[in-house]
Amino acid sequence: MSDEKTSPDGPVKAPKQNFLLRLAAKARNAKYKKHNPGPAYAYPMGLWFTLFFVVPLIIIVAYSFMKRDVYGGVIHEFTLKAYQQMLVPAYGLIFLRTLFITLVSTAITIIIALPCGYAMARSKRQTLLLVLVVIPFLTNSLIRIFAWMTILGDNGLLNSILHFFWNIKHALGFGGAEFIPHKFMFTKGAVILVSIYMYLPYAILPIFTAVDRFDFSLLEAARDLGATKPQSMFKVLIPGVKSGIVSALIFTFIPIFGTYTVPQLVGGKDSYMLGNIIVDQVQKVRNWPLASAFSLVITVVSMIAILWMLSTNRKEANLKKVSTKEDTAANTNTPLLATNLKKGNIIAAAAQGKTEGAQ
Fold first, then answer.
1. pLDDT at residue 179 in the model
2. Domain locations in the chain?
3. Can you tell me the distance from the alpha carbon of 343 to that of 326, in angstroms, rounded to the nearest whole number?
4. In whole angstroms, what is the distance from residue 181 CA to residue 160 CA?
5. Contact between residue 203 and residue 254 where contact means Cβ atoms under 8 Å apart
6. What is the per-residue pLDDT for 84?
7. What is the model's pLDDT at position 305?
8. SS3 letters for the chain?
9. 41-75: b (≥16 Cβ within 10 Å) or e
10. What is the CA radius of gyration of the chain?
11. Which segments in the chain show pLDDT lower than 70?
12. How far is CA 195 from the centre of its chain?
């Protein structure tokens, strides 16, 4: 008896051969997993991750539920006093101020990073532009902040330029009796400006990577269908690089939300943020439980943002996978092969493809 069945498109291998193919594939996978040393390479990283992330996080969580010692440290007694202190209206105001500065800085950073990433991806000098973006990472962050302090200070570059124009107006008889430096430093605007500068490369790089992988023929197709340039950008390009934009949002929002040095050096009373509270509670007030509670809030916000990014990337990957299977199934000429691809039966599809090739 023959092992082949007849279909409208020709002879098809019997289910017995499909079963043998699946069995052979499982055997190969089992043999690969048995001799694959990959998991052993992950042990050092797992140990590092446990010692320097999981253990400190457990300590922070534990300290937030303990009593404060007068001279620093904690008393090992369970209490919710640290979380009760967080509900003080003054701390709530600082939280809202931190959130406002973070959202404004992140939004402006993304608005600047989008055209920069697009221009880099379309440029013929990508390597040079990438080097220019990465160069700030070669300099210590404190040095960059001090550089902005010399620009924004009362005797800095901006006030020197304003003083120059004031001298011209004064020579023409329009200036006042004395030049008064403009207050750029120690303001909320200075914190936002320096934060944008500090974290702009973190937004440009993921957006550049996403745009560089984007299929620009889709923009041409949109234009052929009657879309204008802005419409094709907002309805085709931006949704197509959504994963890069989400990554850029996370890479800027999280560090700005917990930053300390920027508001400490260029900010004032109106830009006191959560990071400043944590440092002051540890170094000055010596209230470790309250500092741990605020640190836990920042950690929870960061984890929510990361989970959102992972969920968004997973959904986008699933949509691409489904779209690829449907396109492959739609373009094939064999109904049985199309059915196998739609059901995800790759082995059966491969067997069917071999059958057709043999014909």
1. 83
2. 60-358
3. 10
4. 9
5. no
6. 93
7. 85
8. CCCEEEECCEEEECHHHHHHHHHHHHHHHHHHHHHCCHHHHHHHHHHHHHHHHHHHHHHHHHHCCEEECCCCCEEEEECCHHHHHHCCHHHHHHHHHHHHHHHHHHHHHHHHHHHHHHHHHHCCCHHHHHHHHHHHHHCCHHHHHHHHHHHHCCCCHHHHHHHHHHHHHHHCCCCCCCCCCCCCCCCHHHHHHHHHHHHHHHHHHHHHHHHHCCCCHHHHHHHHCCCCHHHHHHHHHHHHCHHHHHHHHHHHHHHHHCCCHHHHHHCCHHHCCHHHHHHHHHHCCCCHHHHHHHHHHHHHHHHHHHHHHHHHHHHHHHHHHHHHHHHHHHHCCCHHHHHHHHCCCHHHHHHHHHHHHHC
9. eeeeeeeeeeeeeeeeeeebeebbbbebeeeeebe
10. 30
11. 1-20, 23-24, 26-39, 175-176, 320, 322-359
12. 16
For residue 180, the model assigns a pLDDT of 86
Scan for tokens 């017995």, then name that residue: 16
Q: Which of 257, 255, 238, 244 is nearest to 203 (CA)?
A: 244
Tokens of 35: 């001799």
37 touches 51 (CB < 8 A)? no
Which CATH superfamily hosts domain 60-358? MetI-like (1.10.3720.10)
Structure tokens that stand for 184 in this block: 């750029």
**Residue 277: per-residue pLDDT:** 94
Is residue 201 within 8 A of residue 134, CB to CB? The reply is yes
Residues in the chain: 359
| Each residue's pLDDT tens digit, 18-68 | 666 776 676 666 665 566 666 677 778 888 888 888 899 999 999 999 999
Neighbours of 83 (CB within 10 A): 15
Burial class (CB in 10 A: 0-12, 13-18, 19+), 321: exposed
How far is Cα 263 from Cα 321, in angstroms, rounded to an integer?
Answer: 44
Alpha carbons 199 and 107: distance in angstroms, whole number: 12
Give CA angle at 118 (221, 113), nearest 5°: 135
- pTM summary value: 0.77
